[in-house]
Structure formats: structure tokens, C-alpha cells
Specification:
single chain; 188 residues; mainly alpha; 8 helices; rod-shaped
Length: 188
């Protein structure tokens, strides 16, 4: 079997997917080899001060200095990444919650799992009512509404009284003028 024959036997997949799979295999293999070498050689060396601060290297090139600088860069990057993830969550969370809630039948969930009598028994309604009454200032509302109602009623009664007075006055004048004759001419 030749090399070209084996390549032809690979199922047709997009080139990007093949490259991604190959990269994952190379990285995984490298990590495995690196861990094996580290277990053998690196662990004892990490405990050694001469490994972290060798006297023959300038301070800027010593492994401890390099690792410390890398740790600082990593901490800054981690903070930036956490901030970016937070921003993404701030944008995505409302949309995801809306999507989930739109698929839920909240009414049936509440009816199935909540006994309304237990809720009523658990809530002390007297403080709730007192707080609502304190916040809406019920006496002032009653004063205002009855005051305007009373003034409208008085105004209506006065208008009715004026209308009745005029009607009586006209009736009396008609009766008096019929007995005496013609009404007096205005201005004369």
C-alpha cells in the first residue's frame, strides 16, 4: 500500500478541519512529552535555588526574573480576559434568560408548586397594608377628593337654586303681568 493510497482512504473533510485535528494532535503529544520530561528532570530542579538564580547569569536573564515577568503579564491578561468575559456575559445573559423564560410555562410551574393558602398564611398583611397606606397618604387623598366633590355639589346646588329662582320669578311675573296688563317697557 502506497502513501497516496492511504491518503485517498481518508474520508473527504474540509481542509480547515483536517488542519485543526492535526494541530490538536501535535499539541497534545507535545504536552505529553513535556510532562514526562518535567516529571523526570524538572521537579528536582525546581526546588534548587541555583536553578532559579544562577550566579553566572545577569539578573534580567535569570529564570526567576523571567517567570516573575511572565506571571505579571499573565495576571494582566487574566484580568483583561475576565473583564471581556464579564462584558460578554452582560450582553448575553438577558438574551439567554429571555430565551429560557420564553420556553417555560411559568403559570403551570407556579400553580403546580405553590399553594396560595401557604403564601397567604406566611405573609403578614397588616404591615404591608400599613406601609401602602403610609406611602399613598390616604387621608390627603380623601380630603382632596371630598373637598372637590363637596365644592362641585355646592356649585351644582347653587346653580339649581338660581335656575329655580329664575323659574319662580318668571312664573310670578307672568301671572302678575297678565292681571295688570302689559309689562313695563324697559328704560321707561
Amino acid at each position: 500500500m502506497t502513501v497516496t493510497h492511504r491518503l485517498e482512504a481518508v474520508p473527504a473533510v474540509p481542509d480547515a478541519e483536517v488542519m485543526a485535528d492535526a494541530a490538536v494532535a501535535v499539541v497534545a503529544g507535545s504536552i505529553g512529552v513535556g510532562l514526562a520530561v518535567f516529571r523526570r528532570v524538572g521537579q528536582p530542579m525546581l526546588r534548587s535555588r541555583t536553578m532559579w538564580r544562577p550566579a553566572f547569569l545577569p539578573t534580567s536573564l535569570q529564570p526567576a526574573t523571567i517567570v516573575t515577568a511572565a506571571a505579571r503579564r499573565g495576571a494582566r491578561q487574566r484580568a483583561r480576559t475576565a473583564e471581556q468575559v464579564g462584558l460578554l456575559l452582560d450582553q448575553w445573559t438577558p438574551a439567554l434568560v429571555e430565551l429560557v423564560v420564553s420556553r417555560l410555562d411559568l403559570t403551570s410551574l407556579v400553580i403546580r408548586h405553590v399553594n396560595i393558602d401557604d403564601v397567604i398564611d406566611a405573609v403578614d398583611l397588616v404591615p404591608v397594608v400599613e406601609q401602602v397606606l403610609a406611602e399613598i397618604d390616604l387621608p390627603a387623598i380623601i380630603r382632596d377628593s371630598t373637598g372637590s366633590l363637596a365644592s362641585e355639589t355646592v356649585r351644582g346646588a347653587r346653580m339649581t337654586g338660581i335656575t329655580v329662582d329664575e323659574a319662580i320669578s318668571q312664573a310670578i311675573q307672568r301671572r302678575l303681568f297678565r292681571r295688570r296688563g302689559a309689562p313695563p317697557v324697559a328704560g321707561g
